[in-house]
Design a protein that fits this description.
This protein is of the alpha+beta class. The protein is built from 2 helices and 6 strands, in the order αββββββα. A hairpin with a 4-residue loop joins strand 3 and strand 4. Helix 1 crosses helix 2.
Length: 120
């Protein structure tokens, strides 16, 4: 069976589900290092996640049509963006994160750990 380009959104959606699960898992681990372990994790309509601590918010958005997404770290009230960037999940399930010195695609779990650590 040959895959067509119409299969790409479904593939990217499945890859996003896996990546989101890893992000939630690593964020839960990161929350152990926070005072009181306080972190709220919210799904955003199946195409993003939001991680809130007492002082900042990590927002991650994903587009299943292209396999790309954006992330940003903002102040709790959303008035200031401390840092932001983009990522791409390729068909093999590896993730390219901007701002990473190596510039090479990372395994999905390593990329999730890197993004989740940004909330500290």
């Amino acid at each position: 069976m040959t895959r067509t380009s119409g299969d790409a959104p479904q593939l990217y959606q499945e890859l996003w589900i896996s990546f989101a699960a890893l992000l939630k898992s690593f964020a839960a681990a990161v929350s152990l290092a926070l005072p009181g372990g306080a972190m709220k994790i919210s799904d955003r309509d199946g195409c993003g996640l939001q991680f809130c601590t007492a002082s900042k918010v990590l927002e991650i958005a994903f587009d299943s049509q292209s396999g790309s997404g954006q992330w940003s770290i903002k102040s709790l009230d959303g008035s200031t963006t401390a840092s932001s960037g983009a990522f791409v999940i390729d068909r093999a399930g590896t993730v390219s994160l901007d701002g990473i010195a190596s510039g090479s695609p990372m395994e999905m779990d390593a990329a999730a750990e890197t993004l989740a650590a940004r909330i500290l």
